[in-house]
């Protein structure tokens, strides 16, 4: 039996559709940049970006990197998680910097407003804005890393490397703890609402229902920790010797060269700032 193209078909279904088995299975989709990126490459890029921008101490560079990271989060489809999480961290920090340095900056000479001992100075506002911009970079880059990295691949890389397996487990637990808690809380809320407990509404009703959510949350997290400990013990997690993994993480020579160059650039920037800070050498 032959298909429409004149080639023999291996099954009746393929003959009926006029397609070969390869066409029926479909060609595999090419990997995206996010999937091809090695976990250590993403981690190195995030850490070195934070180090370089902090050492450079330039608000122009900090704002540029912040905008680039935000655009990258949009392109990767994780802006809905990265940006709100960054806002929760940065807004209280920015307000505290504004209150401390914007109102009480002893070195300020250009006074914009004054209320008793509090003085709003241009230098204080500039210092607060520069500090907030410099802090926003590490927050955003590490949030972007945590929401885009493949945690199983990262654990595999760390386990197969020279680091202790416990280090990889701690790092993976840190990256997955908050999403796990959020998902568990949502399931608890849905289950309690299904039983007639109203958890929505004003602030008072939400505070009253907090205790009813926290108790099952703590119990569930404790049970998960015990189950995870048993699974790790059965796997021989704490035992000595080499380990094998069914996951294979491909690391290309180009990515290894990129990591080396990025680490070298970060070390040079830190060394340059240290030399500048030495008396008589920074002038």
Automatic annotation (TrEMBL):
Residues 1-22 have a biased composition (Low complexity). It is found in: Membrane. It holds the Pfam family CbiQ. It comes from the Bacteria. Keywords: Membrane, Transmembrane, Transmembrane helix. GO terms for cellular component: plasma membrane. It is a multi-pass membrane protein. The keyword Cytoplasm does not apply. Its main location: membrane. Residues 1-31 are annotated as: Disordered. The chain crosses the membrane at residues 40-70, 82-104, 125-147, 167-185. The keyword Transmembrane helix applies. This is Energy-coupling factor transporter transmembrane protein EcfT. It comes from Arthrobacter oryzae. The lineage of its organism: Bacteria, Bacillati, Actinomycetota, Actinomycetes, Micrococcales.
């Amino acid at each position: 039996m032959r298909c429409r193209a004149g080639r023999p078909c291996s099954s009746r279904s393929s003959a009926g559709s006029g397609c070969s088995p390869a066409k029926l299975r479909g060609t595999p989709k090419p990997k995206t940049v996010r999937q091809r990126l090695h976990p250590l490459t993403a981690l190195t890029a995030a850490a070195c970006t934070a180090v370089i921008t902090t050492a450079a101490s330039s608000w122009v560079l900090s704002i540029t990197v912040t905008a680039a990271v935000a655009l990258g989060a949009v392109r990767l489809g994780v802006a809905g998680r990265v940006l709100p999480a960054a806002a929760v961290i940065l807004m209280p920090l920015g307000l505290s910097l504004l209150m401390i340095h914007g109102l009480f900056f002893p070195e300020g000479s250009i006074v914009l407003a004054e209320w008793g001992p509090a003085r709003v100075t241009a230098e204080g506002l500039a210092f607060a804005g520069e500090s907030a911009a410099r802090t926003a970079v590490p927050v955003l880059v590490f949030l972007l890393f945590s929401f885009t990295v493949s945690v199983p691949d990262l654990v595999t890389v760390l386990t197969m490397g020279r680091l202790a397996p416990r280090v990889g487990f701690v790092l993976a637990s840190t990256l997955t703890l908050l999403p796990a808690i959020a998902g568990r809380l949502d399931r608890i809320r849905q289950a309690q609402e299904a039983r007639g407990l109203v958890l929505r509404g004003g602030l008072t009703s939400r505070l009253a229902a907090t205790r009813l959510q926290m108790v099952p949350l703590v119990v569930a997290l404790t049970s998960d920790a015990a189950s995870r400990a048993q699974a790790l013990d059965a796997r021989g997690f704490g035992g000595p010797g080499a380990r094998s993994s069914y996951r294979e993480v491909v690391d290309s020579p180009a990515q290894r060269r990129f990591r080396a160059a990025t680490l070298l650039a970060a070390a040079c920037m830190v060394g340059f700032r240290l030399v500048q800070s030495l008396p008589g050498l920074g002038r």
